[in-house]
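For the sake of transparency, this paper describes our internal protein records without simplification. The tokens are whole numbers drawn from a learned vocabulary of local backbone shapes. One such record is reproduced below, unchanged from the form in which we store it.

. . .
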Amino acid sequence: MPGRSVMKLGLFINTQFPEGTTVADRIPEIVAQVRAAKEAGFRSLWFPHHWLTHPLQMLQITPMMAYVAAHAPGMTIGSNILILPLLNPVHVAEEAATLDVLTGGNFILGIGQGYRQPEFDAFRIPLAERAPRFNEAIGLMQRLWTGERVSHQGRFYTVADSGISLKPHRPGGPPLYIAAQAEVSVKRAARIGDAWLIVNSGGLGKAVPLMRTYRAALAEYGRTASEFPITVECHVGETRAAAFEECRGPLEYKYNAYASWGLQGRRAETSFEDFARDRFIIGDTVSVKEEIARYRELLGVDHFIMRCNWPGLPQAHTLATIRRLGAILGA
């Protein structure tokens, strides 16, 4: 892999809660996680996006990003990921410009195509249209972010000689980080995105060859990525055994929910430890530091976006992981 860049840590904020949880009571816990991350040297905060998750409760992404940004001055705020094809790009461009202004230019728009059939059905958009809608939306948003009047007559979207109400803080708009899990999508991320946002749910066996594809595509298009971020489930315990025991139940709950939504889950005959290998980073401080180094060696990634909380994990374990990761970063 190319020469080492400075490693950054980001925190993926859990905004999902089991049925029966009083979500309002959990907001102070999120703020405490943000403050702990800032004190530990984390540089960024990231937020997930879905609709229709009942019975799993979920806070919606845009108000949460704006709310948390007020508690995290100077930190980067990012969507991870916004489901772009189900939203009008004028709406997304306007809200992204507002978030970019609110954060002083520290907003990143992470976007993906989505995959959940109920969401597409509810918005009356065929799943087969997600890629062309995605492509058209990106081009239109980038034109709108110039602050000039735009005329666009596309297959899905129309703007008639109009401009958005607020120019982004950064000229040209916030960086676009594109999530992708297939070769064609990774090549598109290289062609039109500022970074490929890796979501390591498929494991290193899938990510490593896709990273080769991505770097080759960057070279082909004569482009340079702003960084190489990866989102990983991470838990750091006092011992490796304690770490697995603490996060096993919450992670199994989370990935059972993913399986019910159509993503590949853990096969019944596979142990949690085997499922976690090369997919999650779990252990004590020493083994987690070694795993981070291994990911950097295999992928050349330099921005680790760690999800350290899942439905059912006690707050004390989350805060301990954040502080231990900060110690690893400073070591």
Observations:
- DSSP finds eleven helices and 14 strands in the chain.
- Residues 240-260 form the longest helix (21 residues).
- The two ends are 23 Å apart (CA to CA).
